[in-house]
Design a protein that fits this description.
- By secondary structure, the chain is an alpha/beta fold.
- The protein is built from 23 helices and 19 strands.
- The protein folds into 3 domains: 176 residues, Rossmann fold; 154 residues, Rossmann fold, CATH 3.40.50.1220; 178 residues, Rossmann fold (3-Layer(aba) Sandwich).
- It is 40% helix and 16% strand.
- A 6-stranded parallel sheet has the order 3-2-4-5-7-6, with helices on both faces.
- The structure holds ligand OXT, adenosine-5'-diphosphate and magnesium ion.
- Adenosine-5'-diphosphate binds next to helix 12.
């Protein structure tokens, strides 16, 4: 017996090595859904002092891990069971990769030998092969002594260069494998300088400043890469020193306060159409910026400068005359350096025109935000929430929907970086609850999630998760009774309702009461304001069912133009 005990003491196993490797690299939070073969791993992680949050669906655990990576610059970790759990997590892994958020999806898997002979293992699936095309890197670990290097590789792959999603495949047998404890200790790797600074070439900086200096109507566009970089002071200093108007993309709002005198957010069309030099900082010229061409950009010739860590991003859509390749912190520092002390601001007729358009658009919108209409329209409801965010600039705003998203983006000013978390590059519905949970867990800040009723439906069961961990999350469901609107009618006259409407007068607030949270229905902006302030003062999990006029929205919000326009009459 004694020798067995002694023998035992010199052994470690896969369970321990995974935990030791993650903790050694300062990864202490796991977003998961338990099940074979990872249930015990989650328990052991919790016993080892890690925070292990269990969700109701792996997709939401994955969205939580993805935004955790964006907020912390460390990979958020999602852990799932094999096959169906892995597949549920895969959407979030692909979303993280598309949005350049560092995330690791760890999934248990069935045994190689059986998979490769397709002999029908429990939840049999060649997960590694399926994951590879959808993420930045994918690895499988078969031996306990490789766990340390496998986790190290996953961490480095997730955060170095352009951040993204990494898949890590752990066959069930790996976790129970034993090995000599001392050798196990030796096999662990603490990743050194996982996201090394990438300094821009001096000539690229000089070239960019030359182009910017020569501009009559320059524009800076800040993207979520600039927010992710956490180079907030340098970015603000660069924008202000340049005197150039800037346009924040949705998740870059708050890098400088939206009320900043150089913000062109409320003059977007004018800024894009009339600018002659455009400097992209951590923003891609993808569909969100009409690929840098066409009607959105007007017909004046333009020169593009691009600051990005990914060299292949240059010339992706239009010619980049001044590519600056490097990490944004290093690039902006070098740009500031290169500007010296004699930088002259752009012509005042340009900055004045932008400013004037901003003031006109803001003044035009202002009265619509003060209404107290019942039923509420988007402007009245969001006008109330706009005031709350202004009073609580440290609160984190999570936002999804179509009208609920698009109106909130232009109505709610943000004042601090990384406080607006939304659907991102793909426009994904369902990110809301996972994002809200991770935002609360990673920052400890109060979270306000403004959700379209359809968007909320994708992940609404996580309301129980929010109550279970007693998180400071206030969810406001914009209940307009449907997708885009609640007025759809079945054209066939049949008994089914239209494809885009929901149960009339539904009471989402009753859902959270089932789990001990606070549920409120608000029918006016004043009532909404009162309910949300009470929730944010209490820090208690709250769901406000905000009754919105079912006719208030438009099809697909501001991107209705992306719908195929039918030219042939419907066949009778
Ligand atoms: O300059 P001009 O004059 O042009 O004016 C601009 C600004 O200058 C001005 N502005 C301002 N004026 C005054 N004051 C201020 N402060 C101000 N700020 C700005 O306003 C205008 C517009 O400015 P904006 O918004 O910045 O500019 P614009 O032109 O809109 O920018 C273009 C874009 C493309 C960059 C922007 O529109 C954008 O970022 N759009 C994102 C669109 C998006 O991603 N939408 C989500 C997806 S839609 C669809 O896919 C949905 N689905 C399908 C589905 C999805 N997505 N996922 C999955 C897994 N399954 C299915 C579904 C199911 S949405 C959806 C649910 C919808 O129903 P809900 O119930 O959830 O929501 P409701 O719609 O509320 O019912
Ligand atoms: P947005 O949707 O806000 O316009 P995108 O997701 O399109 O932003 O673009 C983000 C860009 O930022 C990506 O091209 C990515 O390579 C880049 N990026 C992310 N992190 C950094 C960083 N630390 N330094 C430089 N570029 C970065
Ligand atoms: Mg809706």
């Amino acid at each position: 017996m004694a020798e067995e005990m002694a023998e035992e003491a010199t052994l470690t196993d896969g369970f321990n090595l995974v935990i030791d490797a993650l903790k050694l690299n300062d990864i202490n939070t796991i977003y998961n859904v338990p099940g074979i073969p990872i249930t015990d791993l989650g328990r052991y992680m919790q016993a080892a002092g890690m925070r292990v949050l269990s969700f109701r669906h792996e997709q939401n655990a994955g969205y939580a891990a993805a935004i955790a990576g964006y907020l912390t610059q460390k990979p958020g970790v999602c852990m799932t069971v094999s096959a169906p759990g892995f597949l549920n997590g895969l959407t979030a892994l692909a979303h993280a990769t598309t949005n350049c958020f560092p995330m690791i999806l760890i999934s248990g898997s069935s045994e190689r030998e059986i998979i490769d002979l397709q002999q029908g293992d429990y939840e049999e699936m060649d997960q590694l092969a399926i994951a590879k095309p959808l993420c930045k890197a994918a690895y499988r670990v078969l031996h306990a002594e490789d766990i340390g290097i496998g986790i190290a590789r996953a961490i480095r792959a997730a955060v170095s260069g352009r951040p993204g999603g990494v898949y890590l495949d752990f066959p069930a047998k790996l976790l129970a494998q034993t090995m000599d404890a001392a050798a196990g200790e030796q096999s662990l790797v603490k990743v050194i300088d996982a996201a090394p600074r990438q300094l821009p070439a001096p000539e690229s900086v000089a070239r960019a400043l030359d182009v910017l200096k020569g501009a009559e109507r320059p524009l800076i566009i800040l993207g979520k890469g600039a927010a992710y970089a956490q180079a907030d002071d340098a970015i603000r200093e660069f924008v202000e020193k340049s005197g150039v108007p800037y346009l924040p993309m949705s998740m870059a709002k708050g890098l400088l306060p939206d009320t900043h005198k150089q913000s062109a957010g409320a003059a977007r069309s004018l800024a894009l159409k009339e600018s002659d030099v455009v400097m992209l900082i951590g923003a891609r010229l993808n569909w969100l910026l009409s690929h840098g061409k066409g009607r959105t950009w007007g017909d004046k010739p333009k020169k593009f400068i691009q600051v990005d860590i990914e060299p292949k991003e240059m010339d992706s859509n239009v010619e980049i005359v001044a590519p600056v390749v490097g990490d944004i912190g290093s690039c902006v520092a070098a740009l500031l350096d290169g500007m010296g002390d004699s930088w002259s601001a752009p012509p005042s007729d340009w900055t004045g025109a932008i400013r004037e358009k901003v003031e006109t658009n803001v003044a035009r919108m202002a009265p619509r935000l003060q209404n107290n209409n019942v039923p509420m329209d988007y402007q009245g409801a969001l006008g109330a929430l706009r005031t709350i965010i202004k009073q609580r600039p440290d609160a984190i705003l999570v936002n999804e929907g179509a009208n609920t998203l698009d109106f909130a983006r232009s109505i709610i000013d943000m004042y601090k970086p990384r406080k607006r978390l939304d659907v991102g590059t793909w426009g994904v519905m369902g990110v809301g609850m996972g994002t809200a949970i991770a935002a609360a867990v990673e920052t400890g800040n109060q979270v306000l999630a403004i959700e379209g009723d359809s968007a909320f439906g994708f992940s609404g069961m996580e309301i129980e998760t929010i109550c279970r961990y007693d998180l400071p999350v206030c969810v406001v469901v914009f209940n307009n009774g449907g997708i885009y609107q609640g007025t759809g009618v079945n054209p066939s006259g049949g008994s089914d309702v239209s494809t885009t409407v929901f149960v009339k007068d539904s009471r989402y607030d009753k859902m959270i009461e089932a789990f001990g949270g606070v549920g409120v229905t608000a029918t006016s902006p004043d009532a909404l304001s009162q309910a949300v302030n009470a929730a944010m003062d209490s820090g208690k999990p709250t769901l406000v069912n905000a009754v919105i006029d079912e006719a208030a929205g438009t099809e697909s919000g501001r991107i209705g133009n992306l719908n195929p326009q039918r030219v042939v009459a419907q066949k009778k």
